[in-house]
Each structure stands twice: as C-alpha cells, then as structure tokens.
Amino acid sequence: MSNSHPIIVTGFMGSGKTTVAQALSRVLGCNMLDLDRFITEQVGRTPREIIEQDGEPAFRKIETRFLSEVLARGAARVIALGGGAWTTLENRALIEEHHGQAVWLDAPFELCWQRIAASGSERPLARDREQARNLYQSRRAVYQLAALRVETSETFSDVETASRIAAALTQR
Predict the structure, then answer these.
(1) Rounded Cα distance, 116 and 11, in Å
(2) Is 92 left (phi over 0), alpha (psi -120 to 50) or beta?
(3) In what order do the strands lie in the sheet with 7-11?
(4) Helix %, strand %, coil % for the chain, to 5?
(5) Which residue has the higher pLDDT, 114 or 63?
(6) What would the pLDDT profile of 7-48 be if each residue is shown by its tens digit?
(7) Which of the 8 DSSP states describes residue 103?
C-alpha cells in the first residue's frame, strides 16, 4: 500500500467513522480530515443546516466539490466521509481517480441508532428509528462497494478497529 494513497472511511451515521479515522491517523502517523467538519468550516453551516435550508441535493453538490478539493490537494491521508457521501457515484469516482482505499465500517443498526439518539443532534435524514433503519438498509448495498469491509461493534475499541484496518490495508 502506497503511503500517498488516501484512506477513505465510510459507513452509516453513528458507525464511528470520525473516531476510527482519528485513531487510524494516529496508528499510521499521518493527518486526518473529517469531511463534514471541513464543509462546516468552509461554508459556515453544518451539513444538517445545509440539508434543512437548501435540501439534500444542494448539500451533495457541496460535499462533492469539497471532497474533490481535499483529494486534489492531498489535504489528508485519512478522510472520514459523512454517512451519505459514499452513496454518490461521482464521489466514488473521485476516490477511485485518486487511488483512494475505501474502508466501510459495518456497524450493526442498533449500535448506530443508539449513537445517533445519544448524540442529541437531530439528523435530517434519520429523524426517527424507522426512517434511520430504512436509510441504513438502503445504503448497505452501496457501502459494500468499498474495497475493505471492517465489522465494528461495541466490543472493539477505536484503536483496535484502526489497527485491524491498518493491518488489512498493509496486506493489500
């Protein structure tokens, strides 16, 4: 695995993308970027605010623009995507174009829902358990397109998960 190729962490909201990406960047000794946070810093509004004010399609365009910029600049070796970024074909093509290694954090729905509920911040695309479960089920087929699937659960710490990812990517 080349040290220059970006590692893209994807998965459903609440799967632990940001915390695992942070741990992975420490394990690998490289920098990490959370795409949703980057968008918030650049635009001055959170993804939730953009989706609520302008709609999901407008947010997806912004997300793609910033993903393209981050990848082109080589802004970070490890990039945590928002839960829906990987579902956009153009984003997957950008990642492939930049030789990104996509890692799907496959967490059980109940764990994701528990974390979504505990976060206290409303998710415009998962306002209730049923809406979240339907979205979770519909996105799984697209997440499966990632180069590497790593099952996560409450029993694995972020560092353990990051170490498993690093080991699996080294073997590729």
Answers:
(1) 13
(2) alpha
(3) 32-34, 78-80, 7-11, 101-106, 148-151
(4) 60, 10, 30
(5) 63
(6) 999 999 889 999 999 999 999 999 999 999 999 999 999 998
(7) E
Burial class of 75 by CB neighbour count within 10 A (0 to 12, 13 to 18, 19+):
middle
Structure tokens at 73: 């600049």
- Type of residue at 56: E
Strand residues in the chain grouped as ranges (E): 7-11, 32-34, 78-80, 101-106, 148-151
Compute CA 111 distance to the chain's CA centroid, rounded to the nearest angstrom: 16
**Confidence (pTM):** 0.92
Which distant-in-sequence residues (6+ apart) come within 8 Å of 114 by Cβ? 14
Please report the pLDDT score of residue 1 as a whole number: 43
- Of 106, 96, 113, whose CA–CA distance to 164 is shortest? 106
d(CA 37, CA 114): 22
pLDDT confidence of 122, banded at 50, 70, 90? low
Please check the confidence at residue 152 and state whether its pLDDT lies above 50. yes
Helix (H, G, I), strand (E, B) or coil at 12: coil
Non-local (6+) Cβ contacts of 117 within 8 A are: none
Who contacts 102 (Cβ-Cβ below 8 Å, separation ≥6)? Answer: 8, 10, 86, 92, 95, 145, 146, 147, 148
